[in-house]
UniProtKB/TrEMBL annotation:
Domain (Dienelactone hydrolase): residue spans on this chain: 30-262
InterPro entries: AB_hydrolase_fold (IPR029058), Dienelactn_hydro (IPR002925), Dienelactone_hydrolase-like (IPR051049)
Pfam family name, one: DLH
Keywords tagged on the record: Hydrolase
One of the record's GO molecular function terms: hydrolase activity
Protein name: Dienelactone hydrolase
Length: 267
């Protein structure tokens, strides 16, 4: 059994240029804006289902196609191909620590463009897996009011320093931490407890720097866990969701929607 899936039906595609890069962006919905950054291998059916879920909950969703072929289902070969290409792209700096990644400039520009055409005073940004930390880097721009980091995996956690690294540069993290203190910015982080690709040390670093402004949801995936998550459980908001009340990934997705609603929807 897989998580929810959808196709490209109803999504409008236009190229967008920002920060020196151009990518196609798929857009759908009405209401406050949310930039949904896809996970490896790209805008797969699970990412599209998540986008549709956000649209159904009253948001305008923009999904930039940073890698892969939009709509293509996940397969091991496709995963490996997309990961290999992403790892060598200067845009993502997959292995660098204390790094301001060029893709962050593109995402900030996209967030500003989305905000200009949607209601409210700011937008949310959701990053997943390879792109998880990019959401927090986007929050250097004060137009980003609700960053969500789902299983952030960059820099790829090969060394202790990479596992501790927050996924953005020290100067960017300082700006975000200042926004948390001065403006009430909050971030939401999601991971499975045994996920080696999104190491706990990374969340410890972020919790130390952001304090109570960093809300963490860590789902038990240890051996024998109550809900049967495997040791390779990784994609909190897509692959591991089962739409049954009480299922931890489903409840985490609910909390994410609540978080976006609290931060973006005027009461």
């Amino acid at each position: 059994m897989n998580g929810p899936e959808a196709d490209l039906t109803g999504w409008n595609c236009e190229p967008f240029t920002g920060g020196g890069y151009t990518h196609d962006v798929y857009r759908k919905g009405a209401g406050p804006g949310v930039v949904l950054i896809p996970e490896i291998p790209g805008i797969h059916p699970g990412v599209l289902a998540l986008g549709n879920h956000l649209v159904d909950n009253g948001f305008t969703v923009a999904i930039p196609s940073l890698f892969g072929k939009p709509g293509k289902p996940v397969s091991p070969g496709y995963m490996a191909q997309s990961l290999t290409r992403a790892c060598v792209a200067r845009e993502f700096a997959a292995f660098a620590t204390n790094k301001a990644r060029p893709v962050s400039m593109f995402l900030r520009a996209l967030a500003r463009d989305l905000n200009a055409s949607t209601p409210g005073s700011g937008v949310g940004v959701i990053g997943q897996c390879f792109t998880g930390g990019f959401a927090l880097a986007a929050a250097v721009d004060d137009i980003v009011l609700a960053p969500v980091l789902s299983q952030p995996s960059v820099p790829l956690p090969m060394t202790p320093a990479q596992r501790r690294d927050p996924g953005l540069s020290e100067s960017e993290l300082t700006i975000v931490a200042d926004r948390c203190t001065d403006e009430g910015l909050c971030a939401l982080g999601l991971r499975f407890s045994e996920d080696k690709m999104a190491p706990g040390q990374r969340f410890e670093t972020l919790k130390r720097r952001l304090g109570d402004a960093f809300e963490v949801i860590e789902i038990d995936s240890s051996p024998g866990n109550e809900h049967g998550f495997g040791r390779m459980a990784h994609s909190v908001l897509t692959e591991e969701v089962r739409e049954v009340d009480g299922q931890p990934a489903y409840e985490a997705r609910k909390r994410m929607v609540e978080f976006l609603t609290e931060r973006l929807v005027r009461q």
